[in-house]
Amino acid sequence: VPALDVEKIRRDFPLLQEKVYGIPLVYLDNAATTQKPQIVLDTLEYYYTRINSNVHRGVHHLSQEATNAYEQARKTIAAFLNANKPEEVIFTKGTTDGINLVANSFGRGFIKPGDVVLVSAMEHHSNIVPWQIMCEDRGAELKVIPMDQNGELIMDEFTALLNDKVKIIAVTYVSNALGTVNPVHDIIAQAHARNIPVLLDAAQAVQHMPVDVQELDIDFLVFSGHKIYGPTGIGILYGKEEWLNKLPPYQGGGDMIKTVTFAKTTYNVLPYKFEAGTPNMSGAVGLEAAIKYLQEIGIENIRQWEEQLVDYTISRLKELDGIRFIGNPKHRSGAVSFLVDNIHPYDLGELLDKQGVAIRTGHHCAEPVMDFFHIPGTVRASFAMYTNFEDIDRLVAATQKAAAMLR
Ligand code: PMP
Fold first, then answer.
1. Is residue 354 very low, low, confident or very high in pLDDT (cuts 50, 70, 90)?
2. Cβ(182) to ligand 1 under 6 A?
3. Which helix (H) or strand (E) holds 107?
């Protein structure tokens, strides 16, 4: 019995009422981006019709209001993550931007030739390429924590990779391609035993399960607003104060400085040191609205609901001939990736679309994962708090029909 009223939640999301090709939409591409509840849309309108002004600059009334709203959003998000201080919460453009920030600043501050950066075999391109760029710049080496055929990290091999050359570890909490929930507590504990900081890509975690940065003892954690029911173009970097103070700034510009002369510039305190230029103010208050909405429903209720959806999806898809799950992790969240017979995922995806079912096909920005399984891509169904059992039934029926046509 669900602890959340899914039908009521669905009514809060205008886009879910849309039709495609005249058929009610089944939206199962939530790992790519989520739909937005009315309160987020209203908040964006409120921001622009009532308080829009530049933050941190003017003495005038509106600028104060905009600054207050922006800083209140930071406080709400800090509380959501259980950060020790709001100053540990940096507004970014998204997950990709947050990882680039840390890779760039950490690289310039702490990486020497011969050092090692560890990522995992199931990372999104955005948690691979920024580290590759940095390693190339610094003469460092990128090494990979391998995974097994179930799509789970091989923890013995992780342990074996740890040594004094490893300077930072960047792993995903939840795989966007496979749905695997990684043993991040174990990873962080082993890393910290050797004084190695860890960055967690929580792009597929914060919307699905409780995430407490102090309980995790995580050094850096990043996510995107648009995947947690908020606007695009806004994201969060959480960093331990101690680390953020030690890192050199990323981008230079307005707001991130204390004083500027042509001879020397001194930098602002946290969090402004990492927020150069006019920030995404409407995005920040929109994200706050999304997080408050989610908190009202309760992240633990969402976790339980989505767990039932995942189990139901797997058991229903198992009814289909030729079904092959890509990744079979014991701990899974948010997404199920599969193939049917040797049908190309794009062909399947196209025929699902014609039946009003929106799923993602392809490599999901995780080409190394597809190479590992020797496949061109997968069909991925991914869930949100508003996904219901009927969505899954329509996915299964549409897949069956599509497969019959393509065989
Ligand atoms: N990491 C993971 C695990 C993701 O799922 C995504 C988005 N698909 C990203 C990083 C990148 O997020 P964004 O494009 O919002 O920066």
1. very high
2. no
3. helix 95-110
